[in-house]
Design goal:
Number of strands of chain A: 13
Structural class of chain A: alpha+beta
Number of domains of chain B: 2
Strand content of chain B: 15-25%
Strand order of the largest sheet of chain B: 1-2-3-9-4-8-7
Largest interface: A-B, 92 and 86 residues
Low-confidence stretches of chain A: 1-50, 470-481
Number of helices of chain A: 18
CATH superfamily of the largest domain in chain B: Metalloenzyme, LuxS/M16 peptidase-like
CATH class of the largest domain in chain A: Alpha Beta
CATH superfamily of the largest domain in chain A: Metalloenzyme, LuxS/M16 peptidase-like
Number of helices of chain B: 16
Number of strands of chain B: 15
Shape of chain A: globular
Oligomer: heterodimer
Distance between the termini of chain A: 67 Å
Largest sheet of chain B: 7 strands, mixed
Strand order of the largest sheet of chain A: 3-4-8-5-7-6
Strand content of chain A: 15-25%
Radius of gyration of chain B: 24 Å
Chain lengths: 481, 460
C-alpha cells in the first residue's frame, strides 16, 4: 500500500492534464496578492498545506501481471470502476489506423458468457454510467454504479478481458457506426478537421500523426483477423490496470478481483515500438479550405514527453501565455488588437514527445497571419524578458483549481489515477515529479521558451473560408450594418 | 432568519440500488431587501462557488429589441467597480479562480468559482460584478460587434444550424421563438441605454437568488454577504412577454424543414413536439416514456437505428422543460444518403410506442434507469445545488426532489400509455434536417417525404 498526499498526485497529474487545459496567466506588471497556501506551496517545501485532502491509494499486482489500484471514498454510495489498457492509436501499424478506437465499440459486443449489450442491460439500464474512450496512448473502459453492482461488474470486466467474441456481422455494423462518428467529429466539424491536419503535419513518421478514429480507407479495410490479432496482443492482464474508486472495502474488493481475474493466464506484455521521429529543422505549413465564416489557425511546436524534465516548465509557460482573459496572448490578440474571438494554448505531453498547441479563431475579415505576427511577439517577449514569479504562482493556482475540479467525482479521481499510472508507468515516484514541478523558476520558463518555441520546430495549419456560390449569412450581416 | 426550508433527508431506493444516501440540506434565508440566500456547504473539497441567479432572461427582452439580455450578459464581463475588464479578469485569475456569466430564456447567471481560502474575495468580486458593473457604452458596443461576429459562424456547423432552426420552429408562436435574438435588425436597435435599462429593471434582490456552494465558513461569509448585498434595492420586475411567429420555418404536417449546408457529408436531424408544462400530471409517466424511447443504449431509438441498422453514431431523445414551454426532442446525425431512412424509422418507432402497450419488463427497465441514475446525478454538491435551483425557478416546491424516486417508481404501463396517447403529438411531429440539400433531397424523395427547403438566412 502506498499513501499519496493529494497534492502530490494532483500536481503530478498536471504534467499530463495541463496539456488539455487552456492556460492562463496574469500580466507581468500585476501586483502580487497576498501569499496563500497554494502560492507558498510553490516554494521549496513541496507542501500544499490548506487543501486538506489525502489519497490513500492501494496498489497491487496480480500474478498474471494485472495492476490493481484501489481508493476507498465513502462520501457517496457510488463506485467508479475503470480498466486502463496501455494501447492506443500509437500502437497501430501503417494502414491499420483506427483499430484501437474500434475496440472501444467492439468491447460491448459480448462474450460467450455475457452476450451483446449486457453492460448496458446490467448496468446502464439500472442507472449506471457505462462508456469508454481512446487516446493516442491508452484505451479506457469506465463505469459508475451503486455498490451492489460491483461483483457483477468485476465478473463482466474480467470476462471480456480475454473472452470477447468477434464476428463479421458485428464488424460490418460497427464499421458503419464508426464511420458516422468520424463524419460527426472530423469530416463535418471544422475544428476536428484542423486538429487532424495539424497532427498529421507535425509528425513525419511517428504514429501520433494518425487520427485516433482512423482514416476512412483504413476503416473500410479492417478484417476480422486484424481485430483478433490486435485483441490477442493488447488485451492481456500485464497490459491493463484496474482503477477502482468509491464506496467499498479494499480488502473485500481485492479478493473479488483476484477470484475473477486471477485465473486469466499470464501472457507477455506487448512491446511498444519506440518510433524515432526525425528532428524538425524547418517550419511546415498547410492551408485547407472549408465552409466557415472566418479563418482559424493552429500552431504546433514539437516539445517533450510527459516524463521529461522540461515538461514542467513548458506547462507553466503555456498557462502563463494562454489561460484566462488576463493571459498574455488573450490580452494582446483578443483584447488589445481585437482581431480574434478567442485564443487558446496548451502543452500536450503524452507518453512520447508531444506538441505545444496554439489555436486562434479570427474575427471577421482578419486573417490568420495577423494572429501569427502577434503570437510571435508574445513569445518573443517571454524569450527576451522572461516571466515574473507572480505569474508562475498564478499559473500554479489556476492549474490547482483545475485539478481539484477534476477529482470532484469518483470518476474524475479514477481518471486522474489511471492517467498518471498509464502515462508514467508508476505511482510511487510521484513526489519526485512534484518537487520538480514546484521548482520551476522564471529562468526555466524563459529557457524553455527559447529552446522549444522556435519557428523551425513548429507546424502551422490554417483553415480558410471556401468560396461558395450562395451568399453567406455573414455577407448579409455585413451588408445590413 | 435562516430557516431550514428544504429538508431533503432522502433515502434512495431503486431496483438496483439498495444503497442509501442523504442529499445535502440547504439553508435558505431571505435578507431584508428580498434577496434569497441559499447555502449548500460542505468541506469535502477546497472549492467554493458563489452565484447570483436573476430570474429574467431573453424572454424579457424589450419589444423589438431581442438580444438585450444576451448583450447584457456579455457586458457584465467588461468591468466593474471602476476596474476595467482586464483588471477584473486579473483580480479573478490571480486567485486561480474563474468567473462565469450567461443568459438564457428565463434566467441570467453570474458566478465565480475558486479555492475556498479565497472565499471572501470571491464574494467581493461577485458583488462588484452584480452590483457595480461598469456597463460603459464603448464596451457594450464592442460586445455588440463581437456577438454579431460570432453569429456569422453559425453556418460553420450543421449542428448549430439544426439546433437554431428547430428551437425556433418548435417554439413559433410563443415568446421562446426568439432565442437569444430574433434578427440582426432587432439586435442592431439595442442601445447601451437599453442594456443599462434592462439591468436596472431586472437585476434586483427580489428577482434574484444568491447561492454559496462548497467549503465556506458560514459566519464570515454571511457577514460579507450582508455587507455587500443588503443595500441592494429593487422590486421584482413586471413582465411583458412578446410571442413571436417564424412563418419561414413553419411546415405543413409531415413536411420536413430542410436547411441547406452545401458540401456537408452528414445530416443533422432534429425531430420533436411540444408537451405539457412541467406541472402536468403526466410529468412522471412522460419521463418514463422518454427514457425508454431514447435515453439509454437499450432504448428503442438507439437499439434500432444505431445498434441494428448502423445508421448513426448516436440518437437520443430528451425532455426539455422551460417555465413557459416544454418539448421532447430527438437528435441524431447520419450520412446524407441515409437521411430519409433515419426519419422513416424514427417515425415508425414513435408510432409503435403510441399504438402498442409497453411491456412490463421494458417499463421496469426504464424506471430502474431513472431511479438508479439519480444518485449518480446527485453525487456532487454542485449537482444537487443545480437541481435545487431548477426546482426553485420552476416553483416545484420544496419536496420535488423527495418526490422523484417514489413518483417514478409508481408509474404504471397504463399511465405511460395514457401520457403517450395524450401528449406524444406524432401528427404534429416537427422535423428539421441540416446538411447538403442536394444530397438530402434525393433521399427524402426516395422515401416519399415532403420537404421545405430553406437557407441559413431564413433563420434570422
Amino acid at each position: 500500500m502506498i499513501r499519496l498526499n493529494f497534492q502530490v498526485a494532483a500536481m503530478a497529474t498536471l504534467l499530463v492534464l495541463s496539456a488539455c487545459a487552456h492556460s492562463t496567466k496574469s500580466p507581468p506588471e500585476a501586483k502580487s496578492l497576498n501569499p496563500d497556501p497554494i502560492a507558498k506551496a510553490s516554494g521549496a517545501d513541496g507542501r500544499f498545506a490548506g487543501l486538506g485532502i489525502d489519497i490513500d491509494l492501494k496498489e497491487y499486482k496480480l500474478s498474471n501481471g494485472l495492476t490493481v489500484l484501489l481508493l476507498e471514498d465513502h462520501t457517496v454510495p457510488l463506485i467508479a470502476y475503470q480498466t486502463w489498457f496501455r494501447v492506443g492509436s500509437v500502437d497501430e501499424a501503417p494502414g491499420k489506423t483506427g483499430l484501437a478506437h474500434f475496440f472501444e465499440h467492439l468491447m460491448f459486443k459480448g462474450t460467450e458468457k455475457y452476450g451483446p449489450k449486457q453492460f448496458f442491460l446490467q448496468l446502464e439500464a439500472r442507472g449506471g454510467e457505462v462508456n469508454a474512450f481512446t487516446t493516442r496512448d491508452y484505451t479506457v473502459y469506465h463505469q459508475v454504479f451503486v455498490p451492489s453492482l460491483l461483483d457483477k461488474v468485476i465478473d463482466m470486466e474480467s470476462d471480456r478481458l480475454r473472452g470477447l467474441k468477434l464476428t463479421q456481422e458485428v464488424l460490418d455494423t460497427e464499421r458503419q457506426v464508426v464511420l458516422e462518428e468520424r463524419r460527426l467529429s472530423v469530416d463535418n466539424e471544422p475544428g476536428g478537421k484542423l486538429q487532424e491536419a495539424i497532427w498529421q503535419l507535425a509528425y513525419q513518421r511517428h504514429p501520433y500523426r494518425n487520427p485516433i478514429i482512423g482514416y476512412p480507407q483504413d476503416l473500410m479495410r479492417i478484417k476480422l483477423e486484424d481485430l483478433q490479432t490486435f485483441y490477442d496482443e493488447h488485451y492481456q492482464p500485464p497490459n491493463a490496470a484496474l482503477v477502482v474508486v468509491g464506496d467499498f472495502q479494499a480488502d473485500v474488493v481485492l479478493a473479488q478481483i483476484k477470484k475473477h481475474y486471477g485465473e486469466i493466464p499470464r501472457e507477455s506484455r506487448p512491446k511498444r515500438i519506440s518510433y524515432r521521429e526525425p528532428e524538425q529543422n524547418a517550419e511546415k505549413r498547410l492551408v485547407i479550405e472549408d465552409s466557415i465564416a472566418s479563418e482559424r489557425l493552429v500552431q504546433a511546436y514539437r516539445t517533450t514527453a510527459a516524463d521529461e524534465p522540461d515538461t514542467h516548465a513548458l506547462d507553466v509557460l503555456s498557462t502563463i501565455l494562454f489561460e484566462g482573459q488576463s493571459s498574455r496572448a488573450w490580452r494582446r490578440i483578443v483584447e488589445d488588437r481585437d482581431i480574434a474571438f478567442g485564443v487558446s494554448g496548451s502543452n500536450f505531453t503524452p507518453t512520447f514527445p508531444g506538441l505545444f498547441l496554439v489555436t486562434v479563431g479570427m474575427k471577421g475579415k482578419h486573417v490568420a497571419s495577423e494572429a501569427e505576427t502577434e503570437l510571435d511577439a508574445v513569445i518573443r517577449e517571454v524569450q527576451e524578458k522572461g516571466v515574473t514569479p507572480d505569474e508562475i504562482a498564478t499559473a500554479i493556482r489556476q492549474l490547482t483549481v483545475q485539478v481539484v475540479d477534476g477529482v470532484r467525482t469518483a470518476h474524475g479521481m479514477a481518471t486522474m489515477i489511471g492517467t498518471v499510472y498509464t502515462v508514467f508507468g508508476r505511482t510511487r515516484s510521484l513526489d519526485r515529479d512534484l518537487v520538480k514541478y514546484l521548482q520551476v523558476t522564471a529562468n526555466d520558463v524563459k529557457r524553455v521558451a527559447n529552446q522549444y518555441l522556435l519557428p523551425n520546430r513548429r507546424s502551422v495549419a490554417t483553415l480558410i473560408p471556401k468560396p461558395i456560390p450562395s451568399k453567406p449569412l455573414g455577407s448579409r450581416l455585413d451588408d445590413s450594418r | 432568519m435562516i430557516t431550514r426550508a428544504f429538508c431533503w433527508a432522502l433515502v434512495l431506493i431503486s431496483g438496483a440500488a439498495e444503497a442509501s444516501s442523504k442529499l445535502p440540506v440547504p439553508e435558505v434565508e431571505r435578507l431584508s431587501n428580498g434577496l434569497t440566500v441559499v447555502w449548500f456547504l460542505n468541506d469535502r473539497l477546497p472549492l467554493v462557488d458563489v452565484v447570483v441567479l436573476t430570474q429574467s432572461g431573453s424572454r424579457d427582452d424589450p419589444r423589438g429589441k431581442s438580444g438585450t439580455a444576451e448583450l447584457l450578459s456579455a457586458a457584465l464581463d467588461r468591468g466593474a467597480a471602476g476596474l476595467s475588464a482586464q483588471e477584473l479578469a486579473l483580480q479573478t485569475e490571480k486567485l486561480g479562480a474563474a468567473k462565469y456569466i450567461s443568459a438564457d430564456d428565463d434566467t441570467m447567471t453570474v458566478g465565480v468559482h475558486g479555492l475556498a481560502v479565497d472565499g471572501e474575495r470571491l464574494v467581493g468580486l461577485l458583488a462588484d460584478i452584480v452590483l457595480k458593473p461598469n456597463l460603459a457604452p464603448l464596451e457594450i458596443q464592442r460586445e455588440h460587434a463581437r456577438l454579431v461576429d460570432q453569429w456569422r459562424h453559425i453556418g460553420d456547423s450543421s449542428e448549430t444550424l439544426a439546433n437554431i432552426a428547430f428551437a425556433r420552429q418548435i417554439a413559433s408562436g410563443t415568446d421562446y421563438a426568439r432565442g437569444s435574438s430574433l434578427s440582426l435588425a432587432e439586435f442592431n436597435k439595442v442601445t447601451p441605454l437599453d442594456v443599462t435599462g434592462f439591468y436596472k429593471k431586472h437585476f434586483t434582490p427580489a428577482n434574484s437568488v444568491l447561492m454559496v456552494v462548497g467549503r465556506a465558513p458560514q459566519a464570515e461569509f454571511k457577514k460579507i454577504i450582508t455587507e455587500r448585498f443588503s443595500r441592494w434595492q429593487g422590486e421584482a420586475p413586471k413582465r411583458e412577454y412578446v410571442p413571436v411567429k417564424v412563418p419561414k420555418l413553419e411546415t405543413a404536417p409531415g413536411q420536413v424543414l430542410l436547411l441547406d449546408k452545401p458540401g456537408a457529408t452528414q445530416t443533422q436531424v432534429r425531430m420533436g413536439f411540444r408537451i405539457p408544462l412541467i406541472h402536468s400530471p403526466n410529468r412522471y409517466p412522460l419521463a418514463v416514456a422518454n427514457a425508454l424511447l431514447g435515453e439509454y443504449f437499450l432504448s428503442r431509438l438507439n437499439s434500432v437505428i444505431r445498434d441494428q441498422l448502423g445508421l448513426t453514431y448516436g440518437i437520443g431523445s430528451t425532455i426539455a422543460y422551460d417555465p413557459g414551454i416544454a418539448r421532447i426532442v430527438i437528435s441524431s446525425a447520419t450520412q446524407s444518403a441515409n437521411t430519409g431512412k433515419l426519419i422513416v424509422k424514427t417515425r415508425e418507432i414513435l408510432n409503435e410506442l403510441k399504438s402498442t402497450p409497453v411491456p412490463e419488463a421494458e417499463l421496469k427497465m426504464a424506471k430502474e434507469y431513472l431511479t438508479g441514475g439519480f444518485p449518480i446525478g446527485m453525487s456532487t454538491l454542485g449537482a444537487v445545488a443545480s437541481r435545487w435551483l431548477a426546482g426553485y425557478v420552476f416553483h416545484l416546491g420544496p419536496e420535488y426532489l423527495n418526490e422523484y424516486l417514489p413518483r417514478v417508481g409508481e408509474v404504471t404501463v397504463n399511465q405511460v400509455m395514457k401520457a403517450v396517447k395524450e401528449d406524444f403529438n406524432t401528427r404534429g411531429l416537427l422535423t428539421v434536417v441540416a446538411g447538403d440539400a442536394k444530397q438530402i433531397e434525393k433521399t427524402l424523395r426516395a422515401e416519399g417525404i415532403p420537404f421545405k427547403r430553406v437557407t441559413e438566412r431564413d433563420l434570422f
